Amino acid sequence: MSTINSQIDLDVLIIGGGISGLTTAWWLAQQGLRVQVWEKSSQAGGKIKTNHTDGFQTEQAASMIMNFKPEVDQFFSRSGLTQHKAKRLLQSENNRYLIHQGKLQTLPMTIARLFFSPMWSTQGKLRLLMEPFIRKANKDDETVSEFVSRRFGHEFLEKAMEPFIAQQKPVNLNILIN
Predict the structure, then answer these.
(1) Rounded distance, CA 100 to CA 109, Å?
(2) What is the model's pLDDT at position 53?
(3) pLDDT tens-place string over residues 5-45
(4) pTM value?
(5) CA–CA separation, 92 vs 74, rounded Å?
(6) Closest to 148 (Cα-Cα) out of 163, 48, 168
(7) CA atoms within 13 A on the CB side of 60
(8) What integer pLDDT is reported at residue 165 of this predicted model?
(9) CA 137, CA 59: separation in Å to the nearest integer?
(10) Would you say residue 4 has pLDDT above 60?
């Protein structure tokens, strides 16, 4: 961990070198402020990590960094980090994988395929079919989990969404595939 050097005159001290802390530091520095970022771990990036194992690349957490919103592209372009932005292959854009009953399964990306997938219980499938009839939320501060549960059901939240947005312990895929 860094220590404060009393000779350095700072405008802003940012605690945490995750994507939010690093982005905030960069934008503040662009405004001429003197910024320092403190991160407790040995590597910046927070929960965002890229793993290379046995010829496969996997991304951990904050997959929205790969999105195509103008603000994200502007940040990558202005900061000189465009070459480090993870690229999606067109053929794999629709492929997401989950571990279901101890096996790696493709997550269906259409309602029809979701409905016929063995990953969902009969009750879960019926709940997915009700989605077009679900009304708008009554509150303004609905969380992502509340939104997904309300629109698609708790089973969809647990099986399809949480694996992509929650921090999980690494899984040894070699054991699952063999």
Answers:
(1) 16
(2) 83
(3) 556 788 999 999 888 888 899 999 999 999 999 998 888 88
(4) 0.47
(5) 24
(6) 163
(7) 14
(8) 63
(9) 32
(10) no
Domains of the chain: 1-46 (no CATH), 49-88 (no CATH), 94-177 (1.10.3110)
Asked whether the beta carbons of 32 and 15 are under 8 A apart, the reply is no
94 phi and psi, to 5 degrees? -95, 0
Quick one: angle between helices 70-79 and 19-30, nearest 10?
70
CA dist 64 and 162 (Å) reads 14
Q: The tokens of 105 are what?
A: 């399964």
Instruction: Give the separation between CA 21 and CA 32, rounded to whole angstroms.
Output: 17
Strand partners, 97: 106
Tokens describing residue 56: 């496969």
| Pairwise CA distance, residues 89 & 59, whole Å | 14
Q: Which residue's entry shows tokens 């063999």?
A: 178
Taking the C-alpha atoms of residue 149 and residue 155, their distance in angstroms, rounded to an integer, is: 8
